[in-house]
Structures are given as C-alpha cells and as structure tokens.
Design a protein that fits this description.
Layout lengths: L19 H14 L4 H33 L3 H4 L9
C-alpha cells in the first residue's frame, strides 16, 4: 500500500456526491485493502488516474509530432491560416 503524506496547508476540501452502490464498493475496498479512510483511497485512485491520463496525453502529443514530421503536409500543419472543415 502507498502512503501519501499531505501538507494540510496545501489542500482543498471538496464535496463529492456518489451513489450508494459506489459508496458501498469503496467502503469494501477500503476494508479489504487496509486503507486508513475512503479519502485516502479516493486520493490515491485520482492520483493514479491522473498519472495514467498524463501518460496518455504525452503519447498522443508524441504521435502527433511524429506524424507531422513524417507528413508531406507538415508545412500546412504549422500554417496558422489553415481551416479544416469536416
């Protein structure tokens, strides 16, 4: 299990509404996995999601850069007056 140290001066409290079913599932995971609270579990889940999302964005950015370097139309991609209609 991951331990997250939190500087309380650098935090923001949010209110989150979830369904009873989702709450029950989170409570079950907290008990089974030994998290100290639902908040700790949710913080870790969000942290992991955001890291995954950032990696996905970096991959898309890398693919776009590779495509533009390899594309015969790369000059058009950098043209600020280009309008795409679809």
């Amino acid at each position: 299990m991951k331990v997250i140290e939190i500087d309380m001066k650098q935090t923001k409290t949010i209110t989150l509404r979830i369904s009873n079913d989702l709450n029950n599932e989170i409570e079950k995971i907290v008990r089974e996995r030994g998290y100290s609270s639902k908040s700790d579990f949710i913080r870790l889940a969000l942290d992991e999601f955001l890291m995954s999302y950032q990696k996905e964005l970096e991959g898309l950015t890398h693919e776009a850069k590779s495509w533009s370097r390899n594309s015969k139309e790369s000059d058009q991609l950098s043209n600020p007056n280009l309008v795409l209609i679809y």
